[in-house]
Amino acid sequence: MPNNITYITVGDMDDRRHLDPTVFRRTNRQCIVTINNLYDRNADIFQEIQSGSCSNPDETAAILQLQNEILKRIKQFVMVYHRERLARLRKIRWEKGGVLAAETRANMSEAEIDWFNDYCRNLAEFQEALDVNLMSGMEPPKALLRQVRVLEDYGEFETTDGKAMILKKGSIHYLPVNDIEILIQQHILEEIA
Fold it and tell me: Where is the DNA replication complex GINS protein PSF1 C-terminal domain (predicted)?
């Protein structure tokens, strides 16, 4: 890569120092400067080719193409990195709610904090409009449902609440306790710890 820029990959994100916003901003700035430099260089080369003042047009066209591919690759790195950070923020929102830990907030850029706050606000407005709490009921209640494995093909099965499903050998389901007792006795289902 040009100018020996250190690029942060998604795999590097598990390394704590890459969560530091100063490293993130510096690397992001370096990528943007490199993109702008390559773009300007490509524009100059293209003008040179168009004007016919190029001494070796084939070699110059190859350089232009190579620099364009480098430019695309740098953009791809930046986009993947941004997308991964936003995905992690979205996951934090669903797992921990709308309040960020001080350490997490300290390692976020201003734009990420704004995005997170907007995401929380939009989610709250959506839940309010539908009068539903999407954060509750994320896990099935253990007392009412049991995890079972199908021991032999049974075919279509309908629970008492009207949900239909196909019970195939080896498949695993969460089913209401009162619906599975008979099938367990018939050795069609077995309860999983």
Answer: 147-192
